[in-house]
Structures are given as C-alpha cells and as structure tokens.
Design a protein that fits this description.
Layout: E1 2-6, H1 11-22, E2 26-31, E3 39-41, H2 48-53, E4 59-62, H3 69-74, H4 76-93, E5 99-105, H5 116-135, E6 138-144, E7 146-148, H6 158-168, E8 171-175, E9 181-186, H7 187-200, E10 206-211, E11 216-218, H8 219-230, E12 235-239, H9 253-259, H10 268-282
Parallel strand pairs: 1-2, 1-4, 2-3, 4-5, 5-6, 6-10, 7-9, 8-12
Antiparallel strand pairs: 9-11
Helix pairs in contact: 1-7, 4-5, 6-8, 8-10
InterPro entries: Epimerase_deHydtase, NAD(P)-bd_dom_sf
Family: Belongs to the NAD(P)-dependent epimerase/dehydratase family.
Domain NAD-dependent epimerase/dehydratase: 3-206
Length: 285
C-alpha cells in the first residue's frame, strides 16, 4: 500500500514512517519544509499544496498538528487553523475510498475539552466522522495517551524533562506532590497501532479507538524510573498543583479487540530506559 504520513518529521510521525516501512508499505512523508528522501512538501495551512502531495496514495496517516496544550492557549486561532483546517484540507484532497488514520488525543476527555488543543482535535474527529460515509473513506481515529520514549527531544514533555534533569544535575519541577497519574505509551507501540488501524480501515466506516497502556503511572513513578535507568538521583522541587485532572488512564482493550493491538513495550521502565539509552548514546556515554 502507498501511504502518506503528514507530520512525518515529528516525534510520532518518524516512528510511524519506520513502522509502515517495516510492514512493507511504500511511504510518502509530508513535511512543511526541508524534505528528506522520500518526502514531499505539503503545508496544512495551504490546502492547495495537498492535492499534488497526496496524488496516488492508498492511505493517509494524518499526524500533522499543533500538539502542545500551552501553545494552543497562546495561539488558539492558529491551533484551530492547523488542527481542524488541516484535517479538512486532507479530507478534501483524498480520493474516494482512501483509508485514513487520524491522530487524535485522549485530552478530548468526555467531549468537553477545556483548552483549544483538545477542542480543535475533537472538531477534527467530528469532521472525519461525518466525511467517512459521504466520501467512502475507511476512517479510524486514534485517541493517543501520553506518547513517550526514544526520539522525543521536546524538553517541555515529562520524560525528556526528567532525563534532562538527571543528565545535567538540575532540579525537576513537580506540580503538587507528584501523585498525578498519567498513561504513558511507548512511541513504538503507538506506531504499530497506526499500521494496524490502516489495515483495519473499511470503506465508508468510521470508528474511534483509545490508544494507551492502561497502566496508571504517577509523576513520582516516572522520576523513580529515570533514577533506575540513569543511575543518578533526580533533584525535585515542588510547586503548587496545576489545574489539571488528577488521573488520566486509557483503556487499551477496544484497540486490542478491534485491531489486535497490544502495548507490548509500555511498562514505565521500558519507556524511560529506551529513551535514556538513545540519549546516552547521543552523548557518547
């Protein structure tokens, strides 16, 4: 199958490209600029650039998006333009019968997100839901938990931030007492979910599936895992708890039942250990 991947240069996008290639697919990566071999330039904010970029593909994994909650708060209109507008542009450019896998987020919660990131992604889900039967698309929406592991260079995200503190001997700031629970899922497991969803997509049918480990992990558990992986203590400074949910855990059973997908690598020690191994190798330790 010839598959286009929007956001192919991002953390999850790179892993999805690798997993698709390993599964035997021909991949066309779509990036905004500086395309490497096998990639095309396509800007989600310029819909006219998408038609040529998507020509001749059998499926699309749509990951191009604004993905930071804080960034969405400072630029809500830009977030909506990219996350919803970009999805509409992809939908309009796709031929009938194409398979589509949309990267969404567990941050949509109960359908009432309290930030532009979640709201714009939920709106993108609705657009895919409504377009699928009308355009004969085989559409699968994957609501991703907190994706982590090797390849994540974003210092604002939990695992890279903690490993950075361990490496540099600096303090890691914890909101509250560190008991807030999240669901961390290994990036390689997530990439396999995209491959499975692409294969399971059926023309004219839409479905939404949560993708997570199902394992509740507190922030202090991630810190402890980083200390085990690095062999170094992580200095912690606490500040007032942030206004955010105390616990977010995703049920992986629906994806297992419908896709045959299992998060095999998503134990916290594996996630942090793989991320640290890559970082240590880059530092030539």
């Amino acid at each position: 199958m010839r598959v286009a991947v929007t956001g192919a240069g991002g953390f999850v996008g790179r892993a999805v490209v690798s997993a698709l290639v390993a599964a035997g697919h021909e991949v066309v990566g779509l990036v905004r600029s500086h395309p490497a071999a096998g990639m095309r330039i396509a800007d989600l904010d310029r819909p006219a650039s998408l038609a040529d970029a998507l020509a001749g593909v059998d499926g699309v994994c749509h990951l191009g998006a604004v993905v930071r909650v804080r960034a969405s708060l400072t630029d809500p209109l830009g977030t909506w333009r990219t996350n919803l507008g970009g999805t509409l542009a992809v939908l309009e450019a796709l031929p009938r019968g194409t398979r589509l896998v949309l990267a969404s987020t567990a941050a949509v919660g109960d359908g009432l997100p309290d930030h532009p990131y979640g709201s714009s992604k939920l709106a993108a889900e609705w657009a895919v839901r409504d377009a699928a039967p009308a355009r004969g698309l085989g559409a699968v929406v994957l609501r991703l938990a907190n994706v982590a592991g090797p390849g994540d260079a974003d210092p604002t995200r939990l695992v890279p931030a903690i490993l950075g503190a361990a490496l540099e001997g600096t303090e890691f700031t914890v909101n509250g007492d560190g008991s807030a629970v999240r669901d961390l899922v290994h990036v390689a497991d997530v990439a396999e979910a995209f491959v499975a969803a692409l294969g399971a997509a059926e023309p004219g049918r839409h479905r939404t599936l949560p993708i997570g480990s199902g394992r509740p992990v507190a922030v202090r558990d991630v810190i402890a895992a980083a200390e085990r992986a690095t062999g170094r203590p992580v200095a912690v400074r606490h500040r007032e708890a942030a206004p955010e949910p105390q616990a977010v855990v995703v049920d992986p059973v629906p994806a297992r039942d419908e896709l045959g997908w299992v998060p095999r690598r998503s134990a916290i020690d594996r996630i942090v250990g793989d991320a640290w191994a890559e970082r240590a190798a880059a530092q030539q330790w």
